[in-house]
Amino acid sequence: MAILDTALRPAWIFETLRLWQPYTSVPILLEQAMDFTAQELPSSIIRQRALNQILRFYVDHSGRGARRRTLAQNVWAAYVRGYRAHVLAPAFLTHLAAGNEVAQAAGVFFHTHNRPGTEFSSAELRRFLAEQHPARRFSDASVGAWIRTLTHFQVILTGPRLGEYSVRRSLPVAGNIFPLLVYSWAGARPCAWVDPTDFRNDPILAYVDDTGFDHYWQRYAGHLWFPETQGDGDACRQVWRLRDAEPGAMARTLINLLTPYRRPRRYATANTATANTATENTAIENTATKNRATRTHA
Question: Taking Cα atoms as reference points, which of 171, 178, 176 lies closest to residue 196?
């Protein structure tokens, strides 16, 4: 499980994934992202560290080292072509939490500190983590990076004094991107079925608003999962059996189902997004060239 050592913003994730192309060299993708993404970071070293984390979390690849190449499909890049960054932010954050040990440990804390306006300090969170995980010491850098990430995602707000924070809100989840939450959760909790109650109470989901989850399970029934009853009598419960429990198979299914569930009036359709890809890439390349020229003359 990975540890974040640099805070991330949803816009950086979104912009990096817009550059994704199939069967592309990952080092070249990183170079393009360096010229286009997270330009507000003052240091190229910090920028590269942040972008490497984004690639590690969201871009699967084949090969090793300099020979790494992207795969034929990427579910995150597919969604980026159809939805805006603020709509995808809950899915981005959930995916970070699913692969981040600090985020999951802190998720237990935020399950009980999730009311808007609730105040807490970074010292309080660190004490909680130390008490709950006495055998596992989380570095101040990793905890601080996750706290700053939550501020960038506007889950929490900075307080009047250094190290003080308050909860702003849990991120609302649109029905169209709910399957991405299940995809990220299933990658961290391999299982053929999902208990909806356990799902919404999992620390991975601590940073999003579960309003509408029951409806979303029903919405995709028959497409991504199927209802199943387990147990007898008082122990009887309804769960959802995943159509594709293997993450790669689920990703392909999500890509295939993406177009029918998109909101065509608010967001670009798949055909429009595909038609605009060349124009977007040209603009990105022009911006990257300008940035390189500026650094050269400087």
Answer: 178
Distance, in Å, from the CA atom of 298 to the CA atom of 289, rounded to the nearest integer, reads 14
Question: The tokens of 184 are what?
Answer: 């990220």
Name 159's Cβ contacts closer than 8 Å, sequence gap at least 6.
Answer: 119, 121, 165, 166
Instruction: Note whether 59 and 95 are within 8 A (CB).
Output: no
Tell me the pLDDT band of 18, cut-offs 50, 70 and 90.
very high
Please state the separation of Cα 194 from the chain's center in Å. Answer: 20
* pLDDT interval class at 296 (50, 70, 90): very low
- Tens-place pLDDT, residues 210-237: 999 999 999 999 999 999 998 777 778 8
DSSP notation for 154-189: TSEEE-SSTTEEEE--PBP--GGGHHHHHHHHHHHS
Give residue 15's Cα distance to chain centre: 13
